[in-house]
Amino acid sequence: MRLKVITSNPGKVEEFRREFADWGVEMEHAHIPYDEIQTSELEEVVKAGMEELRSSGLRDFIIDDSGMFVDALKGFPGVYSSYVQKTVGNAGVLRLMEDVSERGAEFRCCIGCDIDGETVIVTGVCRGTILREARGDGGFGYDPIFSPDGERSFAEMPLDEKNAVSHRGNAFRLLKDRLRDLGLSDTD
Ligand code: IMP
User: How far does residue 159's CA lie from ligand 1's centre (Å)?
Assistant: First the structure.
């Protein structure tokens, strides 16, 4: 079985390869552009992307989309996470949250997989809080300002500890469960 991982980020392909190393699934990096529709829901973006790619004749592929949703900002930056990170960055989000005491937020990661004629869409979530200041040197993006336990930021955690609770780790676990349910696992 071979799946095309459609992304501009080679790091993601590596992550899929690692996760599915013992499944006998070959992950191939593919750059195929598709529209990211304007909506506040990651699932809608992924669903529309999958429909567009399927209607162009593509089969056996994976796409994904993630973002950070802050409760007090009504879910912002959400689907705009990448743009907000590139423009105002963590300092901009901390500024928006300066006088806000309600600090709840969540990361979400939505993965869409077209495999063997089946379409599987899963969303992994990780709840936590926005810290008062950026902490830690690890990770990327919003990692320094997000904490899953109110103590350490994602940027202060070793990667395997982050993956054990992260939105992406949870999405991988859900995807594997669904593929096993469909009888598409080589391992059991
Ligand atoms: P993508 O869809 O996985 O490329 O994620 C979109 C944006 O969300 C990224 O550019 C990051 O700013 C942010 N993001 C997604 N996942 C994470 C994470 O695990 N840590 C920090 N930021 C993240």
Answer: 15
